[in-house]
Amino acid sequence: MEEFRGLVVKSTGSWYDLEKENGERLNARLKGKFRLKGLKSTNPVAVGDWVKFHMERDEGVIHTIEDRKNYIIRRSINLSKQIQIIAANIDQLFLVITIDSPPTTLGFIDRFLAGAEAYRIPTVLVYNKIDLYETEEQKAELRKWQSIYKLAGYDQIELSAEQKIGIDTLKDLMKDKTSIFSGHSGVGKSTLVNSLDKNFQLRVNEISDYHKTGKHTTTFAELFKLSFGGRIIDTPGIKGFGTVELENEVLSHYFPEMRSKMGGCKFNNCVHINEPKCAVKEALERGEIALERYDNYLSMYYDDEKEHHRAKGVRG
Ligand SMILES: Nc1nc2c(ncn2[C@@H]2O[C@H](COP(=O)(O)OP(=O)(O)OP(=O)(O)O)[C@@H](O)[C@H]2O)c(=O)[nH]1
Ligand SMILES: [Mg+2]
Ligand SMILES: [Zn+2]
Question: I need a labelling partner for 50 at 20 to 30 A (CA). Which of 13, 133, 228, 271 fits?
Fold first, then answer.
């Protein structure tokens, strides 16, 4: 039987829309006795997966999922052991940020970035609405944030989705890659995505309206192709990574600027708080790690500890 290769562009849970390598689209379902090793998930195949299939009449029958480069999951609310794979094979996340309209906090950004590190997905910080940074004070604040994340090693761009400033730089970064946009409500994600591709406009509005109906807990992700050669996965599932469990012992691994220094710590289980001869704290003192980032590291560390004690308490 002839075998084909396809990309999952939409999933309803029982039906999949596939795109073949020649661009052709078709409907597919899973082979009857399909089993996935390892992961206990409610959906074995997710948007962004590459699969192998054969044809039965005019529908595809998926029999193999290719190895994933990465994926994002969501824990289902009722069945605590079950997870739902939201999307797979993501090349990059764009975290859209506005400093005060609406406010994004450094704490939110650092949690998001640590979560993305845990999933091994590169993140680019996108400062939108630069047309609104008018006073010297506002501009200074923007420079300060940019210097914090430059020190941490993140790529950053600034733009105005509304005034179409800096859009080409974003398109260059997106070319031939699969991207996801995240960020607080109102930072301009839809405006930004609309400005990328004229033909895309309708779809984006459809999506955001759909989300507003509050059905997003059962909505699956969808993958869209952009005319300039890039893909966007639209997913309601990751406004942030608040639900990702980041174990305290490895939390600093998810801060790239700490990760690169911790080889020099005296203790190999150093958590860079009270230990002597800690290379991370030495770097902090030399100004090679931003104090704001370190403070957020600490607050995540102690938050999780509190969480942990509370959970223990409940269990008795
Ligand atoms: N001044 C200015 N306003 C912008 C810019 N980008 C977006 N906006 C405005 O910000 C508001 C929110 O933009 P949206 O694109 O709807 O934001 P969103 O991130 O998609 O929000 P949710 O769908 O709720 O998550 C709208 O009124 C936009 O017109 C920009 O670059 N400059
Ligand atoms: Mg939107
Ligand atoms: Zn240390």
Answer: 228
Q: Is the CB of 98 under 6 A from ligand 1?
A: no
Atom 28, ligand 1: residue with shortest CA distance: 188
Residues with CB under 5 A from ligand 2 (ion): 189-190, 208
* Nearest residue (CA) to ligand 1, atom 9: 188
Q: How far is the centre of ligand 1, averaged over its atoms, from the C-alpha of 9 (Å)? A: 26
Q: What is the pTM of this model?
A: 0.88
- Please indicate, yes or no, if residue 280 is contained in any of the structural domains: yes
Q: Which residues contact 234 (CB under 8 A, 6 or more apart)?
A: 204, 207, 221, 222, 223, 224
Same domain, 155 and 35: no
Task: Give the model confidence (pLDDT) of 20-38 as tens digits.
Answer: 989 999 999 998 766 655 5
Q: What is the DSSP letter of 220?
A: P
In a domain, 282, yes or no: yes
Residues 77, 96 within the same domain: no
* Cα–Cα dist 127/145, whole Å: 10
